[in-house]
Amino acid sequence: MKILIVGGGMGGTILANNLARRLRSELEGGKARLTLLSASDRHMYQPGLLYVAFGRMAPDELYRDQKSLLEPGIDFHVDPVETFKLDESCVICKSGKRHDYDVIVIATGSRATPENIPGLAENSINVYTEEAAVNFYKKLCDFQGGKVLVSVGVPHKCPMVPLEVTFMMYDFFKERGMLDKVQLHYTYPIGRLHSLEPVGKWAQKEFDRLGVTYETLFNMKEVDGDKQVVRSEEGGEVAYDLLVAIPPHKGMEVVEKNGLGASGWIPTDRHRLNIEGRNNAFVLGDTTNLPISKAGSTAHFEAEALAENIASMVKIGRAVRDYDGKVFCFIEAGKERATYAMFNYNNPPDPKPPTRSIHWFKMAYNQLYWSSARGLL
């Protein structure tokens, strides 16, 4: 069986490594072949961008050589896919090379699209690329005071980032003795402070305690950089001195160009993770259209379920388990305080009061990530 994984991020890497271990004898005996295609020879620890944005991590700490993370038996190529031919069970890469498959997994990720809201890209800062995170830190350091507006678009990658950015800015300004010069204001598109109701209720109490003001039902329409205001689809308007954006995201352009899904999100079965209507094509991580968090842990848990199923398809000819929607997200609530949200399709999250021990556990995970990417955690 030829297994093809497209995308070398968190989900694709964990899946490839998990399959390489489960199918070691089949790969060695020629019964299976496992190929991973990526757009880069470097693997980025994307959650680390948040720490770069606050001067707590250097940009070069975000990266490892992709090959160093892969198990033996994985045929790895830096050759991004340009054309998906699902009816012919093959893809065509940038190099022109064709890869045929029996099973394909698409794990191409997502991208921030601030340019889709007029004025947002030119007048805001965010934490979603290395360049943006470095610029974020410089802007924070240069800020002398005024109104900091955190404005959230949807959908976006890493659902806790809007809250984490707000809490971390509070501590950043507190450490510099600037809280009396700064007003933190937060807007969210729906009628609460987070898409997950229990998280929203928890965040509201934390914001009230810290004096962070907020406004809900605020969907960004445009940014007027000259007047320094953000206008909403609902007719509202909020002024700012520093605009921190959580820009809306899309799936990758290659997905859109190939007509696999609107806005780059591929229609995906919530339990089997196959593309709707196709039994040999699967989707992983941010690329799905599933109404669950676009987070590293989502990709991780999906990859574990999918690896077990694909390995079973090789060994016994059928899948053996369903993905249950499991997600686990840390929430930084300040420099040395954190909590977490754990949930699945049937059980909502129940965030606990933030503690130092959970914060330090998250700090430890920043280093353990590389073992996680190898599928060892």
Specify the helix fraction band. 25-40%
CATH class placement of the largest domain: Alpha Beta
* Total number of strands: 21
Q: Into which percentage range does the β-strand content fall? A: 15-25%
Gyration radius (Cα, Å) is 21 Å
* CATH fold-level name of the largest domain: FAD/NAD(P)-binding domain
Runs in which pLDDT lies below 50 for 5 or more consecutive residues are none
How far the N terminus sits from the C terminus, by CA atoms, comes to 27 Å
Main attributes of the structure:
5-stranded parallel beta sheet; FAD/NAD(P)-binding domain; globular; alpha/beta; 24% strand; 2 domains; 377 residues; 4-stranded parallel beta sheet
Give an account of the 3D structure.
The protein is of the alpha/beta class. The protein contains 10 helices and 21 strands. It has helices at 10-22, 24-29, 49-52, 120-123, 130-142, 161-175, 197-210, 253-257, 296-315, 356-373; strands at residues 2-6, 33-38, 42-44, 63-65, 74-78, 81-85, 90-93, 98-100, 103-106, 110-112, 146-152, 182-187, 213-215, 220-224, 229-232, 237-239, 242-246, 249-251, 281-283, 327-332, 338-343. The strands form 7 sheets. The protein has a 5-stranded parallel β-sheet, with helices on one face. Strands 13-12-11-17 form a 4-stranded parallel β-sheet, with helices on one face. The protein is globular, with a radius of gyration of 21 Å.
